[in-house]
Specification:
Strand content: 5-15%
Structural class: mainly alpha
Number of helices: 16
Order of helices and strands: HHEHEHEHHEHHHEHHHHHHH
Helix content: 40-55%
CATH class of the largest domain: Alpha Beta
Strand order of the largest sheet: 1-2-3
Shape: globular
CATH topology of the largest domain: Rossmann fold
Distance between the termini: 35 Å
Length: 402
Amino acid sequence: MKKCTLCGLPETHETIRFNEKGICNICEGQSIKQNINWEERLSELDELIASYKGKYNYDLILPFSGGKDSTWTLYFLKKRYPDLRPLVVRFNHGFLRSQVKSNCIKVFKNLGCNVLEFTPNWHAVRLLMLQALIDKADFCWHCHSGIYAYPIRVAVNEEVPLVMWGEPSTEYTAYYSYENKESVDEEQFNKFRNLGISADDMYIRLFGHVDERDLAPFRYPPPDQLKWLGLHSVCLGDYIPWDVKKQVSIIQNELNWKGELVENVPSQYNYEKIECWMQGSRDYIKHLKRGYSRVSHLTAIDLRNQRIDKVTANKLVDEFEGRVPYSLNLLLEYLGISLNEFYDIVSTHEISPWSSDNASKISIPSHELPDDVDTWHSKDGLPRTISEDILQRCSIDCNSCQ
């Protein structure tokens, strides 16, 4: 596969293009970031906050997962505007890890804020996961849609027009440019957040096996309500330069925020996507579809910021990407499918010129598994042992895991 000569992202990456020097458009977008007048942008943020502050039930809605980006967003806003009154909204996708829950308790108590958490009907979620896997080889439709639709529904219900997100998508795709601020709106939601599948689509595809009312949290509010509200939904990363490593260091020191090992991710990136214990399976599916996964994304960011060299980046990619995660066994149980059925489904979604025939399908050694695997649960709610799960569910070489 063709790869960016600078960051190493392959041609199967979404929105990617290469210039005559083989440098991708995501890297080119990051060069624009260096030329932005960030002092002017910060002044614009001050004016934006001032124009909404104290005029509504809450000053703004802040969607919150408990990961590094949303934690930094809440921290930054509360530190810069001490008397800001946000409503923190968390959509619980059903796979929150214990460290994230612990982090949230510390963060909320430290910063002081009102928090609203919503958990969707789990029976409906399981059906949605399977349907999304079949349609898009991405079982996270309920997460993508819920995270981006539910806070907007809360904004309408609470009559709070300002919604503040964290990291802009420009950090890792070329859907938008740093030259123009990103609107996290209905157009973006339908463009790529919900995988091109609406809640109404899901209701039809599931033949009524899901109560339509249980799909409401995944449905974006209608245009007339958004117009009435005057929704203004933006990213903090369009007003301040986004630097994940610096931000993580600050929230670790100031809030005692702690990272966690993620399957198939090197330990030096233990701040990345720690919210979900199914993350390893999602990354593995991406590798089967596109020939790369999260390590390529992380090393690409470090290469652009000159924090790593290509030899080290390539070594990390070769060592960690494409290994079968332990969480895949639990995913198969949740969805009620076999490993062969899983591979058959995902193989129909491969992005050319990649072929999953090239995937090694070697399991993660048990000594590299996260410490909290005993808290991960099967569909019956009972914890399962590593060896039992792998030996029962995998038809691959698991000698290293016994």
